[in-house]
Amino acid sequence: MEKAHKKLNAWKEAIILVKMVYEATASLPAEERFGLVSQMRRAAISVPSNIAEGAARQSKKESIQFYSIARGSLSELDTQLELCKVLNLLDSTQMSRVLNQLNQVDGLLSGLIRFKKES
Is the full-model pTM beyond 0.85? Predict the structure, then answer.
């Protein structure tokens, strides 16, 4: 039986975001491995993980809470990407691709939260 979260577009797109973050952070300087790289990867991983946990919850309130945590992780990742931009650690093409994917996931999560609140 397929898990409920695997049917959610927000989860599928968040998985793609994680892959993109891993690819982008692979090019960061070695001295950032335990700093920014680690933080960005953990924030990215948190997004689909919390979507999955929210989808598995029985109550609407709990589901919304985990989806909201996923959105918080997106905001954290957005801030870390901004730091990469300010510090000139990522090229603009890579930055743009990751930010576009982040915004797509954010939109899907917003819709998911809205749907849960209205159901």
Answer: yes
Helices (H), 1-119: 9-25, 36-56, 60-86, 92-118
pLDDT value at 34 more than 90: no
Q: Calculate ∠ Cα 98-100-104, nearest 5°.
A: 115
Walk me through the domains of the chain, giving residue ranges and CATH numbers: 4-118 (1.20.1440.60)
Tokens of 4: 């409920």
Chain segment 70-117, per-residue pLDDT in tens? 999 999 999 999 999 999 999 999 999 999 999 999 999 999 999 999
Q: Tell me which residue of 81, 92, 115, 103 sits closest to 16, measured CA to CA.
A: 103
**CA torsion angle for 61, 42, 73, 82 (degrees, to 10)?**
180
Q: Which two tokens stand for residue 23?
A: 């690819």
**Structure confidence at residue 85 (pLDDT):** 93
* C-alpha R_g of the chain: 15
